[in-house]
Amino acid sequence: MSLPGHGTTADDGYSAWKTHLSGTGYALIEFNWWKGTGENKTDYYSPGEVVREVRAF
Question: Which sequence spans correspond to the domains of the chain?
Answer without folding.
Answer: 10-56
